[in-house]
Structures are given as C-alpha cells and as structure tokens.
Amino acid sequence: MKDKKNRYILIPKDLQKNLIEFLDDIQIDAAKNNTHEDMHLVNYCSWAIEELLNGFDAQFKDKKSKPQKKSRDQYLDETFMDWNLPEMDDEEYNKLVDQVDGFLRAWEKGHKKKTKEDEDFEPVQDKDFKPSLHDVAEHCTLEEIEEMLKDDPELTPQERFELYYTEHDRIETQKSYKKAEKEMGKMLKGLGIKPFKN
C-alpha cells in the first residue's frame, strides 16, 4: 500500500461558521420529521458539524523578509576598526577587505549547505534495529529464511506463513526468469543472433 499524504483545504473562519449554521438548520428541519431518511440526514449533519468544529486551525505565515545586507562601509566599520592593522594605502586595504569578504562568503555558503544537509539527515537508531526481511532475504536461501521466521517470537503463525510464502514465490519467480533467459539465449544462439547486452 502506498503512503498517501493527507490533503487539506483551508477555509476562512467565517465560512466555517456559516457552514455550521447551515448544517444546524438542516439538522433541525430533518429532526422534525421522524422518517428513516431524515435520521440519516441528522446523523450526517452531526458528523459534518463535528468535523468542522474539530478541524485543524491554520494560518499563513508571512514571508520572512530577508535581512538587509550590510553595506560594505558598515561591514568595514564593524569588522576592521578593532583590529590593529599596519599602515597601508587604500588599494592594499581594499584588497585585504576583498580577500576577507571572499573568505566569509565562501564559509557562509558552505555553512548554509551543511545546515541544509543536516536538516535532511535522519539518524539511524542502533538500538533495537532489525533489518527488513526483504533486505536480508535476497542473500539467504529459503531454508535460512524459514529458520529466521521460526526464531522470531513477534510473528504469529499466519504472518510466518505469509512471509515464507512471499519469499518462496519471489525465489521461484527468479528461477523462472533465469530459466527463460537461458532458453532465450539458446534460441537466439541457434538462430545466429547475438543477444543484446546493456
């Protein structure tokens, strides 16, 4: 089964309020009649009102405005004024500032890249780690898989059977593919055709 993300539709609070009032009016009118169909309508309206009341609250975040870049003069005033730099002319001073500025930009770029990679990284827990049967099963014989399934106390007999049968079916399918591949190779060789290789 594929995992599907939940999808939501955002509605304003006043629309939510109007929908609740509308459903409540329909529910009251339906409750006056005592038919089977009207009782279904009452139940549906109750459910819909409850969903509207218990829905998630959401609000849009304002786009963060980028911090204003400091001008080169502000940067110089904050950075280099405290340093005891040797006497130098304006050209040498600007060259030094350009070098430091280039270094800081490269560092900041690398730092941002590392931060983004760190956010995407999900650590693997060593504790209680059990590899998936499918990861291990590709490298085991059917007898080894059977022993692994027998040794797992968390599985019910039904689950053991289903996993074993799935692996048995996978292995048999692989065997049939290999057999068909060999037969196809023999047939192509008999016809004098070279098989295509990737």
Q: Quaternary status of these chains? A: single chain
Shape: flat
Strand residue percentage = under 5%
Q: Give the helices and strands as they follow along the chain.
A: HHHHHHH
Extract low-pLDDT stretches. Answer: none
Q: Based on DSSP secondary structure assignment, what is the total number of beta strands?
A: 0
Report the structural category.
mainly alpha
Q: Percent of residues in helical segments?
A: 55-70%
Number of helices: 7
Largest sheet: none
Mean pLDDT: 76
- CA-to-CA gap between the ends? 32 Å
**What's the gyration radius in Å?**
35 Å
Quick overview of this protein structure:
The chain is an all-alpha fold and 198 residues long. Helices cover 65% and strands 0% of the residues. The protein has helices at 13-32, 36-53, 72-80, 90-120, 133-137, 142-151, 157-191.
For the structure shown, list the relevant keywords:
mainly alpha, 0% strand, flat
Describe what this molecule looks like in 3D.
With 198 residues, the protein is mainly α. Among the domains are: 13-53; 133-191, no CATH class. 65% of the residues lie in helices and 0% in strands.
Task: Give the helices and strands, then pairings.
Blueprint: H1 13-32, H2 36-53, H3 72-80, H4 90-120, H5 133-137, H6 142-151, H7 157-191
Helix pairs in contact: 1-2, 6-7
